[in-house]
Structure formats: C-alpha cells, structure tokens
C-alpha cells in the first residue's frame, strides 16, 4: 500500500492494472471468460491456443475487463470497484473512475517524442499526448502518419495506451474508416445511438477489423531483395578485377569489393541501415549479386560496371519478398536519438520522421462530427443531391442513403471522374448500393426512373465496383446483412455459444421472433449441421459438383451468396453419378451413421427440392387473422405500388404460399425468420421441408418483386418445355425440381438481374 499512496501516477496505474488482471483471472469468472472469448474470436480458447498472438490476446483482455457485460449485467471493472474500493488509494479510485469511461478508438500520429506520441482521435476528435506501452507490447511501427488502434486511458494529467494497442500503416486510413463507418451504420440501423455509445458498446469490432486486415499487414512487413544476374564472359579478368578493387566513393558513401573463399562482398563504409550488405558470388560462369534493398541496386550496378568492365554482362534481375518480423517502436529512431546510433544520418532526416506529403488527415474532421461527406467539386455534390432525392422517394432508410453517399464519395476520392450525365452516375450508385445490399436491380427500370440510358448506368456501375473492389454485402457499406444467410454465418455449430452469436447477427430482428419460431430455427441448425458434417467426409465429390453447378448457373464462384446456394443444391439435389443417382442427403440416411432421430427427420426431406412460390399472405398464429398494412399512395418503393404487409403481434409468422406454376393448392409455411421484407405478390425461390409438426424453409431464399412474376413464370414454362423435349416425355413440376434444380437456380440468377441480358 505504501507504493500506492506515495508512488507516482505511473506506479499507481501499473499496480491497478495488475489488480484488475488478477481479479479477472478468478475461477468465478471462468465460464464468463470462455463465453466472452468465443464471442470475441469466434472460437473457443482450446481451438485457438496454438495460434493466438499476444497482441490479439491483449486486445481481448482489455475488452473483457472494461467493456464486456457479464451475465449479471455489470462489467468486470464495475464489480471490481464495488468489491475492492475500500482498499484502494485515492489516486487508484480516481483512475478507476476514469477508466470506466475509457473506449477504443483510432488515432493518427502527428508527432513522435521520447516514449510517446502526439495523436488525434479520428472518430471523436481531440489531440492527445500519449504514453505508449513498452515495445514488446506494441504491435506495429510508430511513425508519423500511421494509425493507432487502442484504448485511450487517463493517467493523472496525461494519457496512456495499454498493451492492446496496434499500429497500422497510413495507407490503410481510408479503408479502416470505411469499415468503422459501416459498423456504425449497422449499429444505428439496429439499435441507434451516438458515436460515443457505439465505441463503448462495440469495442470488439476493432479486433475484427485488424484481423480482416491481416493479409495487407503481412505485405507491410515484407522486405524486398533483388538478385542481379550477370554472365561472366572472362572469368580470369573478372576475378582479377575483383581482387584488385579499391574503395570507390560516391556522395560520401564508399564501397569495396572484398574477395573471400569464392565470395566477395560489396560493403558500405557507413552502414546506415544495418544488415544491408550486398553479397557478390561467382557460381560457375555466372556472377550473382544479392541486394538486400532495392535502394542499393542502381549504385551496385554502377560499381560492377566500373570495376568489372566488359568481363561480365548483365542478363536479368530477380525480385523476391522476404517476410520479416513486425517492427516495434524501438526500431524507429526518435527525436532524441543519440547521433552515435546513426553517425551518417542525423535524427531529423531519419526515414521515420521525414516530413510526409500533405494529407487530408491533417485537416480531418472527426467521424462523429461529419454527418455527410464533403464534396470536392460542385458536380459531385449535384450528383449526391439527385441520388439522395431519388433514394428518399423510393422510401429507403436513412442508413441506406448514408451508405450510397459514402460509396459515391469514396469513388470520387479514388478516381476523380469527369461528370457529363449526372443522372447516369446517380443511377449507377443506386445500382451499386443494390449490389451491396443484395437487392434485385433492373438496369432498364432504374434508367427509366432516373431518365437516363441503361447502358451508361451499367458501365458507370462497373467502374465504381472495380475502383472500390465492392463485394456483395461489403462490410464497408452494407446496412443489412442477409437474414437468409444466418445458417451459413453459423456454420455447422450447434452449441449455445454459437446460438448467442446468432442473436448478434440478427440484432433487433430476433427479439421479435416468438419462442416456437426460435425453437424451429434451432432445430434447423442442428439438422443442417449434421448433414454438412456428413458432406465434409465426402469432399472428393465437391469439386465435380461445383464445376457442374457454376457452369450451369453462370454466377461467380467468389460470390459468397451463390456459393451458399451451391451448398444447398450439393447437399439436397445433386444426383451423385457414382452412387446410383442418390443425393448426399439420401446417402446420409442410408448409411445409418447419424443418430436415429436425425436420420428420421432427414429422411422426410429426401423429396424436398427448391421451387418458385408466390406470397399470398401472412398471418400470426396467435390471432389467426391477416394483418395487412397498406403503404400511402405512391409509397410502393422499389417494389411498385402493390400491398405490403407487416406482422405486428407476437404469434408465429405463417406465410401462405402457392406454387408459381402448376400450383392449385396453397400451403401455410412457418417462416423461421422475420418476414417483414416480403410483399404480397412477390415471388420466392425456396426449399420447403417438414420439421416436427411444421412446414418451414431451409437454406437460402431468393426474393423477387411481384413485377417479375410474369417473366419468371414464362421462362419456367419455357424450361419445362425444353426439359420435356430432352426427356421425350411429359414431366411434373415436382420431377423437374428434383432432376433439374440447378436450372431453377440458373433462372434465378438471370431474374436477379432483371433478365437484362435477354432484354439487350
């Protein structure tokens, strides 16, 4: 206690952190620790024990202690204060009170000084003189312009970052901010709140972002080596010249060729960057010169040419990348570095401290204070205004409008396009937003709405997608991840922890799902997990099936949504050529390796294939009545002016579906997830299966507006006629779904694009 009372703020802070760590390690929190760990990393401690890095573990422990809500609703730091405040010094109590309000954020380094940096908060604003943790606890390199992701903690009159801080290269600034804006956009959509609330409640997202940037960070810490290859024309003259070479000076840096046992080394007299000697070796009739830095290549070639003359002839260069350790702060010279450490390079000229080019970050407006993007030309602003007006007229959410504006802003910042037809650019951004959100965008209809040309819209959209490398459900811009993808997001896991992750994925939407419906969803996950595990044991069939599916459908293999549709088809519909035409589902039932109860349920799914259905209504099982909300005139949004419904009561959602073709009888389906995005008259491609006493849907559902129903029906009839011509017999729709399910997915892929390729 004497240390706590009489010591300085640093000693108090250090001791308090040790106390918190010891408190968090108590056996009473073991179960909470494992729950938090599985949520934070997506895997259990046992699964990650061989691959978990110290930096990632430090980030987790900070989040667990300061942010994570335990099962009793309190954070661990709050429990610690309630139980231990009586034995803490006044300084420790002050620190604890400040630390309860600490948060993760992103900072940009503006200046370096001994033991710390001056940095600005890019999210909430403000400048701070930060004391950094020891180099061993710091991930990355501290240089001016680089980013720091860490927890801002007050210690006395100063500020610190503990051991969970990560440093990122400046070139990732835009990408990091885009990813964080995307997370905040989804936070606002699901729960709402300020930036400060977002950072306090969603601190775990920073680990996800850092983890997603791992590949790009790996490139940051690769050294480039260049091997110069020369052909030796006169071996004796070459060796003689090398043995007699004296130092050759150039701009204060001397070099000499030192012959050894068959090897020679080109060594700078003053080694500014340690370890960058250039090795020269004679291998047969070849001279190999290895430069450990591209910076040495021009000078090395000059020395070789000057000293060896015509005895060698340059043939080619080989460039290779060598993975190096992530540098720490200690590897970067500071302003107070001693000249003896680098005699030929004064501290103010150290590469880490050289003045950077002008950066927009110098005048950066914190994200919390930037409601909308700032446009660099009036033309870009006019496109944004037109886009906003059209999106608002279509009744899309404020978060979707925000996403579209940032897509346009980021594209303009990247490409600086010349604007001729503003409407074509606005429509293109609208279509790209649809690509991100998984909407079914028809270029022709969109062009009519914006009074522009469909071909121009398509070309502009392709430019935006290529420039920003936009993917479906892109984390930078997506507002609503597809609910139908929850089974994929959950993988094949069925334990309670993954079920809790399902609640996180669904957000507020799952709160409205009745208990019976939740039980059905849990049952679906259990059964699908068993089937997926069985399929994994037959991975040799996967490639052959994949080749067939993607060739038939015409979609890209990299598209995660269609990859999941393939898995549905692969498990349920593909007739295995070497197994007598049985499906993987049939094989799983016949082999008898699965538990009897699961086999009985899966057996009832053997004839369940995908089909096109029209939505005729929805009702709540608690009332037995339809509840229809009709939008105001002109409020049909992207789906037109047809009726829209929304279930408002607590009963299970029952969809009334009728087969789009040949369907004389309607079927009531217990929908496993919220159905508020559907409209009466819409068409869906889904797979209906029995689960216990219910009929429900499993796998991915494709949803089309009612306006496409006639076109889909016509093309289905054409498919049926073609198949019957091939088979030379009449076939029912059930037979076509069973044998040609892949063609149903191919039709859906074309319909998702509004059959635009056929219109052209």
* Uncertain ranges: 1-7, 246-277, 325-362, 483-513, 622-650
- Could you describe the largest sheet, including whether it forms a barrel? 7 strands, antiparallel
Number of strands: 20
Radius of gyration: 32 Å
Q: What topology, given as strand order, has the largest sheet?
A: 8-9-10-11-12-7-13
Q: Give the fraction of residues assigned to helices.
A: 40-55%
State the domain count.
4
The helix count comes to 29
Strand content: 15-25%
Task: Please render the helix and strand layout as text.
Layout: H1 2-6, H2 9-24, H3 30-41, H4 45-48, H5 54-66, H6 76-84, H7 90-99, E1 103-113, E2 116-121, E3 127-131, E4 147-155, E5 158-160, E6 166-168, H8 173-190, H9 195-201, H10 205-212, H11 214-220, E7 222-232, H12 235-243, E8 248-250, E9 253-259, E10 263-268, E11 278-283, E12 286-291, H13 297-308, E13 312-323, H14 378-393, H15 398-415, H16 422-437, H17 443-450, H18 454-468, H19 486-490, H20 496-506, H21 515-536, H22 542-553, H23 560-572, H24 584-591, H25 596-603, E14 611-620, E15 628-629, E16 644-645, E17 653-659, E18 667-670, E19 683-691, E20 694-704, H26 709-727, H27 733-739, H28 741-751, H29 756-759
Parallel strand pairs: 3-5
Antiparallel strand pairs: 1-2, 1-4, 2-3, 4-5, 4-6, 7-12, 7-13, 8-9, 9-10, 10-11, 11-12, 14-17, 14-19, 15-16, 17-18, 19-20
């Amino acid at each position: 206690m004497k240390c706590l009372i009489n010591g300085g703020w640093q000693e108090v802070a250090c001791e308090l952190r040790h106390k918190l760590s010891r408190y968090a390690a108590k056996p009473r929190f073991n179960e909470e620790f494992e729950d938090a760990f599985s949520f934070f990393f997506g895997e259990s401690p046992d699964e990650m024990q061989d691959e978990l890095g110290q930096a990632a573990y430090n980030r987790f422990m900070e989040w667990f202690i300061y942010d994570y809500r335990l099962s009793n609703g309190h954070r661990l730091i709050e429990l610690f204060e309630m139980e231990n405040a009586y034995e803490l010094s006044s300084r420790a109590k002050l620190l604890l009170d400040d630390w309860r309000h600490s948060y993760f954020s992103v900072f940009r380094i503006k200046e370096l000084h001994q033991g710390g940096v001056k940095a600005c908060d890019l999210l909430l604003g403000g400048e701070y003189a930060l004391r950094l943790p020891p180099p061993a606890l710091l991930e990355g390199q501290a240089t001016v312009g680089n980013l720091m992701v860490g927890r801002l903690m007050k210690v006395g009159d100063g500020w610190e970052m503990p051991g969970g801080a990560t440093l990122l290269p400046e070139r990732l600034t835009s990408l990091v901010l885009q990813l964080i804006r995307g997370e905040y956009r989804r936070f606002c959509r699901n729960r709402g709140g300020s930036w400060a609330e977002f950072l306090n409640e969603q601190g775990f997202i920073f680990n996800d972002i850092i983890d997603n940037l791992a590949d790009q960070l790996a490139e940051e810490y690769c050294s480039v080596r260049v091997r110069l290859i020369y052909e030796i024309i006169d071996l004796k003259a070459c060796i003689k010249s090398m043995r007699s070479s004296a130092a050759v000076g150039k701009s204060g840096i001397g070099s000499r060729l030192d012959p050894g046992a068959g090897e020679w080394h080109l060594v700078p007299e003053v080694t500014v960057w340690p370890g960058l000697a250039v090795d020269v070796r004679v291998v047969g009739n070849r001279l190999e010169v290895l430069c450990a830095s591209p910076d040495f290549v021009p000078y090395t070639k000059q020395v070789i040419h000057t000293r060896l003359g015509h005895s060698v002839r340059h043939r080619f260069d080989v460039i290779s990348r060598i993975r190096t350790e992530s540098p720490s702060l200690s590897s970067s010279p500071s302003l107070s570095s001693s000249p003896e450490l680098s005699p030929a390079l004064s501290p103010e000229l150290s590469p880490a401290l050289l003045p950077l080019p002008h950066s927009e970050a110098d005048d950066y407006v914190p994200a919390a204070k930037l409601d909308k993007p700032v446009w660099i030309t009036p033309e870009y602003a006019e496109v944004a205004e037109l886009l906003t007006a059209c999106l608002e007229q279509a009744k899309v959410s404020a978060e979707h409008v925000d996403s579209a504006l940032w897509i346009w802003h980021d594209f303009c910042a990247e490409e600086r396009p010349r604007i001729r037809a503003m409407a074509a650019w606005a429509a293109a951004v609208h279509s790209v937003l649809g690509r991100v959100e998984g909407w079914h965008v028809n270029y022709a209809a969109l062009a009519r709405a914006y009074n522009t040309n469909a071909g121009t819209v398509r070309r502009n959209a392709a430019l935006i997608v290529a420039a920003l490398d936009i993917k479906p459900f892109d984390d930078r811009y997506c507002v609503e991840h597809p609910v139908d993808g929850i089974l994929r997001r959950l993988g094949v896991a069925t334990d309670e922890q993954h079920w809790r992750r399902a609640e996180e994925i669904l957000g507020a939407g799952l709160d409205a799902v009745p208990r019976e419906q939740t039980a059905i969803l849990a049952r679906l996950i259990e059964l699908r997990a068993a089937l997926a595990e069985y399929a994994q044991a037959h991975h040799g069939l996967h490639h052959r099936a994949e080749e067939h599916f993607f060739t038939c459908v015409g979609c890209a293999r990299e598209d995660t949504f269609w990859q999941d549709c393939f898995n549905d088809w692969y498990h349920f519909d593909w007739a295995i050529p070497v197994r007598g035409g049985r499906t993987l589902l049939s094989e799983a039932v016949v082999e008898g390796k699965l538990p009897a109860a699961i086999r009985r349920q899966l057996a009832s799914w053997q004839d369940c294939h995908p089909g096109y259905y029209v939505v005729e209504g929805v009702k709540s099982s608690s009332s037995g009545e339809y509840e229809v909300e009709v939008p105001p005139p002109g409020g049909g949004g992207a789906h037109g002016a047809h009726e829209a419904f929304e279930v408002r009561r607590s009963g299970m959602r029952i969809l009334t579906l009728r087969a789009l073709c040949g369907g004389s009888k309607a079927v009531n389906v217990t929908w496993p997830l919220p159905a508020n995005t559907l409209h009466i008259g819409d068409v869906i491609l889904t797979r209906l299966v029995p689960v216990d006493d219910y009929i429900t849907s499993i796998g991915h559902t494709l949803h089309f507006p009612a306006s496409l129903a006639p076109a889909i029906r016509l093309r289905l009839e054409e498919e049926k006629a073609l198949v019957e011509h091939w088979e030379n017999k009449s076939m029912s729709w059930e037979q076509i779904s069973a044998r040609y399910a892949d063609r149903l997915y191919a039709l859906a892929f074309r319909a998702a694009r509004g059959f635009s390729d056929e219109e052209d």
